[in-house]
Design brief:
The protein is mainly beta. It has six helices and 33 strands.
Length: about 625
């Protein structure tokens, strides 16, 4: 079970509130801290919505703060009146959203209608003040005549869900107007606006006539881009990296993508991109990028525990804006395997230390350069290895969804495994292609994500040429109106070609399976071909698949039954003679930065003396 914690956000248990604070968020919150109320006045509320169906009644009750906050006193007699008037506005808004344009909301306090109370009312406080909220929903209206004027005249109202005799809720009508303006702006018209939205309810026919009028204005290109608020981050870099190039046709989608792109640099605490309210003399639309810079230096530590692999500690230091153009530098160190079945001797632990550098917008805004040096000591049941790896690579963004990466890698590795003690000096040219069509990277509900990679390599000490090829694809399908159930599936495969037998290929480059992100329930790299002495060989090929049903129990909590299947073989194509499966169930807790994940898994075909179960934790879905 692994869960990393930043130093600035250690878990804090608050007994009085029965809450757990982690990552700066309050989880599993119970009773809230009491807030002192000046001149407290208690009240009793009666809520009536006799002619409303159960769903509408529930919506109305939830909208009435007099009901939801009934156990909390208000401040002064006037506080009850203010709360009641605000509730009336909210309840009318709910009725309009449900197309109940003839609904009536009456609220009385101590038997008096709130509109007939004096400016400074006084109530008998010897007992809770009686309050009655009465709602008569009235009939549901449908759409009648729909009139589109101005630049909306040629549009089909049905494309905006405006259909005669169809639904007439206020939210639907408001959304139609907003969508029309958005569509006009997507035509390159930055000054588009809705000039008229008229809604007339005919209570004799229970129909609503709607009139919409919009002005598109001229088509315009992007103009000059002004950067405000930048101090340590170079404004010219911000302007260039946004890719809002002067002369390109105006597009709100491109502005949104530019904002997302700049936020991903992690150097800004806030960022907005806006167009001016008027065109420049040359007919272009000026833009402004307003930023507020965040903290560039950061450090932290992590702690993790796995039921199979023991505990681990890690630490890191980083800088997000090294030379003024969002260059990042990160130094990390980690030790793991503490308390594992292999023991706690210093020589039995796993170590990792690395320095990682990233330069976005190198040569071109679409190009990112990454460089790293990493040293590892690995001690597993399958092999022991010590390695130093240097990597440099460029990533080019082909489109908003597609990336191509290529570079060079040099690795020196010493291994001890079934083939004895061996040294390797390997030169590689890794290349990869990635397509990300998910709607959310940490918690997707639709779309897919695929990768293809190749790593041609030359092992210099023995003159061996070999290459690895891998690919994976994940797909997601949400069910129900709010995606309360998401079906997720992943398929991955890989093969190694070349080399003079497996002994000529470093153990760190052979294939193994098992553990989180692979076949849960088995130890890390436990799945492998074995010889007659029960020694792991590693494989030339593998195939993995995972199936999950992500089911929301509440808006915050979900469960995930899952099945993982995998095989590893010594041939370049799996023969499926040894298929291992793991099954289990997971718990998810939603947070703004992705779901917290805990999975419990059992191996369905356990190795003799192998793991009997596994517990895994992390942030984000498993794939």
């Amino acid at each position: 079970m692994a869960l990393a914690l930043a130093t600035t956000s250690l878990p804090v248990l608050v007994p009085e509130a029965h809450a757990l604070k982690i990552f700066g968020l309050t989880l599993f919150e119970g009773d809230k801290d009491e807030v002192e109320v000046i001149d407290p006045v208690k009240y009793d509320v009666t809520f009536q919505a006799a002619n409303a169906d159960s769903d509408l009644e529930e919506r109305l009750e939830n909208a009435a703060s007099l009901v939801t906050d009934k156990d909390n006193p208000v401040s002064g007699d006037l506080g009850i009146v203010i709360k009641a008037r605000e509730d009336r506005d909210r309840l009318v808004a709910v009725l309009y959203e449900e197309a109940r344009y003839g609904g009536i909301v009456n609220i009385t306090i101590d038997g008096q209608d709130i509109d007939r109370l004096p400016p400074n009312p006084t109530f008998d406080r010897s007992k809770p003040v009686p309050v009655t909220v009465s709602v008569e929903p009235g009939p549901a209206f449908t759409l009648g005549k729909i009139t589109m004027l101005g630049d909306t005249a040629g549009l089909d109202p049905a494309e905006y869900d405006l259909v005669p005799d169809g639904k007439a809720g206020s939210r639907l009508i408001i959304k139609a107007g907003e969508t029309i303006v958005r569509d006009l702006k997507n035509q390159g018209k930055p000054l588009a606006e809705l000039t008229t939205r008229e809604v007339v309810a005919d209570h004799s026919t229970n129909k609503v006539d709607v009139t919409l009028d919009a002005r598109g204005g001229p088509v315009a290109p992007f103009g000059s881009v002004t950067v405000k608020g930048a101090r340590a981050v170079n404004p010219d870099f911000i302007r260039r990296y946004s890719r809002l190039d002067q002369g390109k046709q105006y597009s709100p989608d491109q502005m949104k993508k530019a904002a997302d792109r700049l936020r991903e640099l992690s150097v800004f605490s806030s960022l907005t991109i806006q167009e001016d309210k008027a065109l420049a003399p040359d007919g272009s639309i000026p833009l402004s990028i307003e930023v507020s810079e965040g903290k560039f230096r950061y450090f932290g530590f992590g702690a993790e525990y796995s039921s199979l692999d023991g505990g681990g500690l890690s630490g890191y230091w980083g800088h997000r804006n090294l030379f003024g153009q969002a260059e990042s530098l990160r130094v990390e160190g980690e030790v793991s395997g503490l308390g594992s079945t292999e023991g706690t001797d210093v020589g039995d632990l796993n170590y990792r230390a690395g320095v990682y550098f990233k330069k976005p917008g190198m040569f071109l805004p679409q190009v990112t350069f990454d460089a790293s040096v990493e040293a590892k000591t690995e001690n597993y049941d399958t092999y022991d290895a010590e390695s130093v790896t240097a990597l440099g690579q460029f990533t080019y963004e082909l489109t908003d969804q597609d990336k191509f990466t290529g570079g060079g890698e040099v690795a020196y590795t010493q291994t001890h495994d079934v083939y004895g003690d061996n040294d390797y000096l390997t030169f590689s040219l890794p290349v990869s292609y990635e397509r990300d069509a998910r709607d959310n990277k940490l918690d997707p509900t639709e779309g897919y994500y695929g990768t293809l990679s190749a790593k041609p390599s030359y092992e210099a000490l023995n003159g061996t040429v070999f290459s690895s090829f891998e690919g994976s694809i994940s797909g997601y399908l949400g069910l129900g109106q709010e995606d309360r159930v998401v079906l997720a599936a992943k398929l991955g495969a890989g093969t190694l070609v070349g080399g003079d037998g497996l002994a000529s290929i470093p153990a760190t480059r052979r294939f193994y399976a098992g553990g989180g992100g692979s076949v849960r329930g088995y130890s890390y790299r436990e799945i492998s071909p074995y010889n007659s002495d029960d020694e792991a060989l590693g494989g030339r090929s593998y195939m993995l698949t995972s199936l999950e049903a992500r089911i929301k129990i509440t808006d915050s909590i979900g469960i995930v039954p899952f099945l993982d299947v995998g095989t590893v073989a010594t041939e370049i194509v799996p023969d499926f003679s040894d298929i291992r499966m793991g099954a289990g169930i997971g718990l998810r807790y939603a947070t703004p930065f992705g779901p917290l994940r805990i999975d419990f898994a059992l191996p369905l075909d356990r190795y003799e003396g192998g793991s009997s179960y596994g517990i895994y934790a992390g942030i984000g879905q498993s794939f």
